[in-house]
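Researcher: We're reviewing a set of sequences before deciding which ones to prioritize for further study. For each one, I'd like a predicted 3D structure that I can look through quickly. This is RRM domain-containing protein. If possible, include the structure in token form so it fits the rest of the review sheet.
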Amino acid sequence: MDAETAVKHAPFVDLGRTALAQNWSCVKIGNIPYNVTSEELLDFLGRNSNIVPEAAGSIGIHVIMDRSTGKTMDAYVEFMNARDAWKCVSRRRSRVLGNRHLSLDVVDPSELMKDIFPRAKGIVWDGVIPNPALNKPEYVSKTEIISREELVLIVNHARTPHRSPFSRKCLQRPFQSLMSIVSKFPWFAVNLYTIQQRDYIYQALYSAIDILKRQIKRGRTMPNLDIELLKALLRVGIRCAGFTDAQKHELVKIAEFGAEGIRVDADIGILSGFEALGKAIGAERKVLEVFSLVYNPL
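Model: Here's the predicted structure for RRM domain-containing protein, in token form for your review sheet.
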């Protein structure tokens, strides 16, 4: 077998390239209560509204949080098609939730991406697709979709919510913010982010899972911080097209009881050291072992 044939039939996939750019139809909901939950929004919209399910690669409902203050901003809901999005807006005659009069508008998916990644540098959003900006300001030296500093701010809100009056009133928001980031990050745009930037996102999610798990284990009574949120965080990480199999294995380990029922690939140990490659569907263990020995000789 020559080198070209060997590469063609290698038992790996290029992480990120298997992800799809999915431009779901979006509805923006403004003036939402600061402590609104995803469940309350789902009840408000109707559970038969054809919202994008987790299995399709998104969490469906995104509640935006200001990274600096922890304040709840607007919400976005992704629908399977434009017809369902417009139907949802038109039939919501009563737009009151709690004590707030909501605004509902069908918007381009780029609006959602701008709010999830508000400090992105050097790119222009075309729906969910990031394109390099043609005329970048001189102070923008590199393309960056999300910075390490933003991720640190979010994790800090999760770790010490009492430091912000907004975080105290809505404890689940930092965790939901990370779920939106991981699920909507354009992993398919492999030329616009580095492995290091990928790892910053992974580490933020890892820390959030650990923080939430410890809070649950302490047995504290905290509204909306429960095992269901822990499982949702883990599912987002497991489905992420940009994380390696080894990283997903570490998420399962740190989640402990939150990972009940989730199976770990038996070949995970063989894949250590592969930073941008994952196991191809149907790859045989003995073939993986050969490639692993070549890459990581004894």
